[in-house]
Specification:
The active site is at residue 69. One of its GO terms (biological process) is cellular response to oxidative stress. It comes from Catenovulum maritimum. The protein is α/β, with parallel strands linked by helices. It is 39% helix and 16% strand. It folds into 2 domains: 1-31; 34-191, Glutaredoxin (3-Layer(aba) Sandwich), CATH 3.40.30.10. Strands 5-4-3-6-7 form a 5-stranded mixed sheet, sandwiched between helices. The protein starts with 6 loop residues before the first helix and ends with a helix.
Length: 192
């Protein structure tokens, strides 16, 4: 049997495909925790990272970073942590910020520290405020959920797959071998 494709069937098929596409997109957003309804520009790039599509149902470690800080070498451990657990569902996102006056003014210099000096492959965003009156909307929600704003660079917020902050770690908490890694392991086990 041959099917004839006329203007009506073409219009009907096109409308149906648009409706299904819109419904699928809305469904993804509906299933996304409020915290993850956020997008931001990737560091030194034109690419925009949509948190809902990239981080939904993942264990997420959020870190406010600075490339001229005494804690900047933690990038090495953060990258090792990411490589160790990314296939199990861990994502890390770095928010460079000059709130503590230790970030480069130039995105290219910040990117060089992250990507060249430390080989960072996890998501790094353009610089933004992580505290104060001009805090970015994502950090505003992190602070509200945890009742803790970053006191310094490399504060770490651990978010479960449901988009809830489970713990906050100070700059002094090393990414590997301590309580933070144990919590990540525990969240990854419950994720499955």
């Amino acid at each position: 049997m041959k099917y004839k494709f006329n203007k009506f069937s073409w219009l009907f098929t096109s409308t149906l495909l648009i409706c299904l596409s819109t419904t699928a997109s809305a469904s993804t957003k509906d299933n996304c925790p409020e915290l993850l309804n956020f997008s931001a520009k990737k560091l030194h790039s034109k690419k925009v990272i949509d948190f809902c599509s990239q981080f939904n149902n993942k264990v997420l470690l959020v870190v406010n970073t600075a490339s001229q800080c005494g804690f900047t070498p933690q990038f090495k451990q953060l990258e090792a942590l990411y490589k160790k657990y990314k296939t199990q569902g861990l994502e890390i996102v770095g928010f460079p910020s000059d709130d503590f006056f230790q970030e480069h003014d130039s995105e290219s210099e910040t990117a060089e520290v992250c990507y060249v000096n430390y080989g960072v492959s996890f998501a790094m965003l353009s610089s933004s405020a992580v505290r104060g009156s001009d805090v970015n909307p994502f950090y505003k929600q992190l602070i509200e959920q945890s009742d803790t704003s970053p006191k310094w660079n490399f504060y770490k917020y651990l978010v479960d797959p449901q988009g809830k902050v489970t713990n906050v770690y100070s700059s002094r908490e090393e990414p590997l071998g301590g309580e933070l890694e144990k919590q990540i392991q525990q969240l990854l086990k419950t994720k499955i």
